[in-house]
Amino acid sequence: MNSVLTESRPQDTKLTEALPNGAMRRSGTHRLPPGKRSGFVLGWPLAAVLAVSGTTVAMRPWEWARTTSSTVHDEHLQPRVVRVERPTPATTTQVVLPGTMRPWQTTTLHARVNGYLKTWHYDLGATVKTGDLLAEIETPELDQELAQAVALAGEAESAVVQAQAERVEAHADLQNAEAQLGRVKADLELARSQLGRRQDLVKNKIIPQEELDTASRQVEASGADVAAAEADITRRRANLETRAAIITVRESTAQSRRSNVERLKELQSFKRIVAPFDGVVTRRNAEVGMLVTAGTEPLFVLEDMHRIRVQLQVPQTYSMQIRRGVVASLRLPESSSPPVLGEITRISESVEANSRTMLAEIELPNDTQRLQPGSYTQVTLTVPQEATAWTIPTNTLSMRIDGPHVALVGEHDQIEVRRVGLGRDLGTRVVVVDGITGGERLVVNPTDDLVTGTVIQPEESMPKLAQR
Description:
The protein is α+β, with helices and mostly antiparallel strands and about 475 residues long. The chain has four domains: about 1-75, no CATH class; about 140-270, Orthogonal Bundle (Helix Hairpins); about 305-385, Efflux pump adaptor protein, beta barrel domain (Elongation Factor Tu (Ef-tu), domain 3, Beta Barrel); about 390-465, conserved putative lor/sdh protein from methanococcus maripaludis s2 fold (Beta Barrel), CATH 2.40.420. About 35% of the residues lie in helices and about 35% in strands. It contains five helices and 24 strands. Strands 5-12-15-14-13-16 form a six-stranded antiparallel barrel. The chain has a four-stranded antiparallel beta sheet with strand order 4-17-22-21, with no helix packed on it. Strands 9-8-6-11 form a four-stranded antiparallel beta sheet, with no helix packed on it.
């Protein structure tokens, strides 16, 4: 009882507050003013109230922690949303190759005769037509040589005429000799007949023996005349054949000299340098008065630009896919004009052993002469793919230690990490030659935490047409 009535000494009262983690923190010290009494009856209820309040405040952080943990756990249970793309068939691939523009046809005009350049008529960049006179050459030596050849050809022709006349004469002599042979043969027959009659007369002793001997000698003389006439005919026939051979030789000589005249006339025609086709003079070296030597320095270069040949060397890798009709797009690096479309016109069908490339040509019209021969151009070929292949976006690849991989979305939206074999890099897409069949869903920008078996929520990309 005394403890109840006795005044308690002034004391410090400690106040606490609850922290979010459930601990208690002393908030301050409250000193009771002197003269105040705090008996047992007043102190105990106050302590009880403070204890109950502290317990209530301390329990709220624990309830908050359990609520937060439950929320985080629910978030981990929700599938991760990823964007997916599908492969597209690699039916064609684009190959960029350097090309060189060539004129449809080009020629270098040289002099074919020696002389001095008399005049020239077309300068650099001039447009000419077929047969236009470009330059003229003076050829005094050739002119004299032609005059000499003409004279020799006339002499040979005269010799042919002479030989033909001699042959006619020899033929007449042969005919005369043949007639003489006929006459002496007739005389021989007459002498033989007379000899026979005289032999009968001698037997009958009508004429003397001397007349028989005279007839016999007459037969012998006629036989000698026949032999001589036959020999003369043989000689004259040989002479006639000789005259025919002489005529053949002289005709050949005359023909040779006439051919030489024609050759010199053809050379003389080269004094006039003319354009062989319609084109543009792209080079002129001709100057008035210059000494011109046949076949040495070029005088003009003429190019036909109405069509252009674009030549390119196709690597052996694509030589089997290059065919006539393959679509090509040509762009000049220094031009802002749109690309020129064309197609492969002709190919060499042979790979050069030195460069392992195959020559191909693209033929283009150039009526406006927009394309200049000799220019460099970038040729983009759309090459058909013969083997089965697919292209995928490059952002679906994941490069790992053992090679390139893709993350496929399989059944039940589970991830399957699969290794693939890559082909040609097309920039934003890459050709896959092994590892996919074409119907897979590929995760875009796969991260390393996507492993096989991970459940995700796929979101396929909208087609570009639909996005527009």
